[in-house]
Amino acid sequence: MESSVVVPWLVLGVLMAISSTQVEAAARAFFVFGDSLVDNGNNNYLATTARADSPPYGIDTPSRHPTGRFSNGKNIPDFISDALGSEPTLPYLSPELKGDKLLVGANFASAGIGILDDTGIQFVCPQISFSLILSFSNPFTVNVYTTF
User: Fold this and answer.
1) Residues of the signal sequence (predicted)?
2) Cα(39)–Cα(79) distance, rounded to whole angstroms?
């Protein structure tokens, strides 16, 4: 009977020890693929009519200037970056995406993109397809490995 009382206390003690241990894990890089809901400025570097580089886009950002996001402030990847304690991912086409910023990740999203190659043909010239965006990620990976 005495051992049946000890076991729950032992389990409770182990659980408390595990829960009080703090594990510091660095935020890992993450990569964004999608359309205008998560595009953070790739279309600023494309010849397209699907652009978010003029007001009212960006009116709720600290600078009050358009950032290329199809929203008036932060978009979903920005909130995820905040939750991870990481800086926001840069657009894949941004010239600033080099060096240590490669380790944060990259945003490959583009407004007007779709799973089918002919999605968004009315917006983008030349046409950007999901398969093309996926092909962008391969040179990015090579660039990360050769830089570090």
Assistant:
1) 1-25
2) 13
